[in-house]
Amino acid sequence: MGQERFADVVERFTQGYQVPAPAPEVRQRWGEEIERAQRRMANFARLMLDPVEPKTGPTARQEVFRKNKSRLYRYESPRTHRTPLLFVPNLGISRPYIFDLLPGGSFVEYMTAQGFDFYLLDWGVFGPEDNGLTVEDCVTRILPRMAAKVLESSGAAGLSVLGYCMGGPLAASFVATFPEVPVQNFINMAGPIDFAKAGLFALWLDKRFFNVDRFVDVIGAVPADMVRAGFKLLKPTMDLSTSLNLWWNLWNDTYVEGFTALNKWANEYVAFPAEFFRHWVGDFYQQNKLVRGELRMGGRRVDLSRITCPVFVIGAREDYIAPPACVKAFLDVVGSRDKEYAELPGGHISLIAGRGAATHCWPKVSSWLARRS
Amino acid sequence: MDPNAASQQLFDLWKRQIEEGTQAWARMMAEVPGPGAGAVDPTAFWRPLMDQGVATWSRILGQAPASPDLMAQWKQFLDQWIEAWSKALGQAMGTEAFAQALGSYLDRWLLSQGPAKKASEQSAEAMLQALGLPSRSQVTSVARQLVELDERLERLEDGIAALRRGRDGKESQ
User: Nearest C-alpha of chain A: how many angstroms from B172?
Assistant: First the structure.
């Protein structure tokens, strides 16, 4: 092509491009595409002009216990399995209704339909009066009480515990610190254990670059907007791809309904109590005390090898918040002989919420637990 | 003229221009002292993207007449583009240089934020006091007392439950 001008090439290209009449099949598909475009516009107008508040949390539940801001909910189910399941999600960051988002797209709904007596611990939204709350308080004061209430209200002799995200290390610390609590099964789902392998957050929160004491001393509780900024920074292109996928699927009413609910959740960030954040970043991320066995809670050493019940660990292949390696490390430190690891497709959220989760994750959790409940 | 050949020619030219641009960028990056092993390699990042993009667009415009697949292919192209940027940004943000820059930025922000926050809190407190209204710290203090009270009640409940268990145990013996 040598030194030809770009404009000459473009002209030759457009002249040489002769368009024959389209085949009927192509015409029909163009018709469908135009119809989709019209529906996209209609849904777009509806989203902009008449947005409907999505109804989340479809599974019936009752509040069993409340402690300060935290609530323990028990969901309705046929309760065919004897051992109740206590679900421990993350504290702060986001609200737990993602686990019971929409009918047909809810982890809670699935598990209750499988006959599990499902309890959810909602840590709640903490205010400035809770700035003194620490990780130790959660592990030694809130979790034991919640577990006791699960046993009390279910009348069972033991319980299963499922920790998701930050709930994984918190619940693991609790089970390891209180071996007298009859925990029969433990599931760590996307919960970071070896923080040296915790990806970008581990690097950014490294004590060489981030002074957690100064941070907490100046700002106190970590506000929701700052939590949002941290998570957005992890994946800066996320909003762009979300918008693109929305536009692409905007013709599909079911997708739009799911998107609206998920989007509501994804933009509802929750603040961290000040001391909790100091303890969480300092002991877990910066000093990696949990996996090194150096963590002390309630005057006892948190020794993960004291967890001897059956353990199931689930990591997500595309998880950039808790990469699989830092989750899988749990298997190396627990004392259990019955232990299993599964690495499933999806990211940190899509591991447990959404269509992929319904196919890959929920049946796995249910079948592993059912055999032991 | 064969439209496929024309489109191929167009893309060859486009690809060459992008490649030259990338090489220039790579040369420029090489001149800047990088943060070490974590430095981003722009050529490695761009090449697969360019090859995929060129192949996709050659295929799309080689079709005559334009098919509705054009939309899907355009979406695919955008997805790849976003993914490529995500990878590149991930690489850049995964370096110690970035973590250090982020930490320094945060430190500077805290240095300015600290005194400003304190001053605004003090002035708000003074204003509320002048108006005879409870300040934020007073409300927080009351809420904290309630939380502590709640804790004490729970400890009492625990104590009573332990006593009951002990009594029941003795009675059953």
Answer: 20
